[in-house]
Write a structure and sequence with these properties.
heterodimer, A: alpha/beta, 5-stranded mixed beta sheet, 18 helices, B: alpha/beta, 32% helix
Chain lengths: 448, 305
Amino acid sequence: MRIILTLLGKDFANLRRNRAALVLTFVVPMVIIYIVGLVFGLGRKDSGPTGIPFALVNASDNPAAAKLVAALLAEKSFHVITTFTNPDRTERPLTEADLRPLIRDRQFSYALVIPSDVISDDRLGLHLKILSDPRNDIESQIVNGLLQKTIFTSAPQLLGQSLQARAKKFVGGPALGRFNHDIAQAVAQAFGGDPARIERDMAQGDFGLARATAGGPAPADGQTANNDFLSKLVQIDTEQVVGRDVQSPAATRIVGGYAVMFLLFALSNSAAAFFDEQNAGLFQRLLASPMSRAQLLWSRFLYGVLFGLGQLLALFFAGHLLYGVDVFGHLGNLVLVCTCVAAACTGFGMMLAAVARTAEAARSLATLLVITMSACGGAWFPVSLMPEFMQHIARFTLVYWAIEGFGAVLWAGDSLGQLLPIVGILLGTTAAVMGIAVWRFNRSPLFE
Amino acid sequence: MLLIQDVIKRYGALTALDGVSLEVKAGEFFGLLGPNGAGKSTLMSLVAGLRAANAGTLTLDGAAITTSDPAGRLALGLVPQHIALYEELSADQNLRIFGQLYGLHGATLKERINEALAAVQLADRRKVQVKKFSGGMQRRLNLAAALLHRPKLLLCDEPTVGVDPQSRNAIFEYLERLNRGGLTIIYSTHYMEEATRLCSRIGIIDHGRILALGTLDELLTRLPFEEEIRFPAGPDTAPLAARLPEQGELTTLDGTHRFRPRPDWKLSAFYQLTESLGLPARLFTSQRPTLEALFLHLTGRTIRE
């Protein structure tokens, strides 16, 4: 027993001394649990996503349409945008013509248009229009569900108005007024109530459908039945503004996200190998030859970029074979973005090697940062599902911009010119992290 | 050939080299001898241009050695203390890489690789991954990699650590052959027998200072004694040991007395004394002072970490 206790003590002493193992054992899982918890709303009373950018154009002057607008504004999941900011910083209401360019510019991914003919005497039911960029499949499903809920909750009065408008067209205004008066009298006599109020409600299209759709002592599938009924009366024109030709939208996002995560792991590991080479005296041997530190560093950087490019392209080709990701239709731009992503990831790995003191420290720091960046940056689930402050943090991660770049190429089919901002951010990131790496390496004993 | 003058190197508060000056002439086999942490590797790295000195100058054939002049390193070959090889690659691939770094290519590179592998007796293992080599084979290849470009000055930083006697002997023979061919070698070690066997001149370094410099014979004359007599410590020899401190230096280590007589005290007097005490002659052994004795005399017996 004494021997077992001695060996047990040895194992715990080793663990206590190994900070890298402690970080991987305790800190990394806690960070992941925290991030996933934030995404899925753990610990919050009101779970679900918040602040998904959503544009709204209301071209109707119908008071019931205003109610629908108010309902959408009150929906916490949406950050509703109703104004357009001019170049001179002044604002004006959004119009339908603004929506498509703004969706293509990724200002928002979803827009609802309530047209001036939301109710028409030419047809029965409502007419709405949804424009979308369903780049994130999960987000897209959530937004559609939320929109249906909000519209069907607020639509009954509009439907009543639609019925009144159609009737007015066929029987004429005076005849409809008499019809409403007679029905109101009959309802009041049979069920009680104020006949004048019933008549006023009928004229405004309020037939109590909202109460019917809200549930009550209905059968188990009553809600569904009501929604099916309503959905036949609500005509929604949908227009996918971006990515119409993409065969496999989910694969495009998933392949890109996981490709960049594994690239970061590979390059961080490769950077940790700096220490192995130092310990083996290889840097001494190399730098004793007619070679400068700069040449050594840049050769490592170039290797990382080529390695990363190879890995990313191989994973996208796998995505093409397995899920039909359209690689060959955008090969040139894909190579450009992959090169920029590989450069930024290589620089990140070299920065880790430069700031860490040992290979173990570099590896554990890399694991912590890569997993955190992948979770926050959208490699695992869309950033828009996270709380707003996390969405702001996501923009400071390499993974976010890598996924944006892949999406811009494979989903939106952006041109070279349109890709320049993302390319600029990735190259800027590369310059920044490499600057830190070179600065630290010049002060590091790693090469001595 | 190599001139080092008043070199100081500090790492923060630690002074690793404290005013080191020495000259290594062309064709010399110069031994740099010192305990762990004495400053040997730091001095080697300064000569190799890997680090910059805080003060002082280092010149090779009149040209300053600096960290910012990679071209100047063509004249140098470095055998690092560690086995600085890519172990996943074969011997041939390793030598090809290191040869190319020195500007060798084509037929010349191939010829140099063949020569080097033959010289370290690895020609038949050229395609084998280095990680499959024994420690001795790796050490031999480590040496060969520093010689492909035929440097004028070879820096060997403890190149035989952990090597079996056969490989060590092969390395020694190869280095001796190279030195006879005119190659200047600086050999850093803490093995006395290596320095004794190989080096024509030796510098003993400790605490960043050169404590002694010269040929083996010159260094041994610096010992304050010429002869050392050893005899077992015990009750029989206790009366002798009690009388000896007046006549010289007596130390006891591992159950053995070591007596170094004063220069003016004749050995015949010592043997007269032992006879008078009835001690048989077989108890006594006599030996000349060694480099190890000088080393310990100069650097002390405190264990270095």
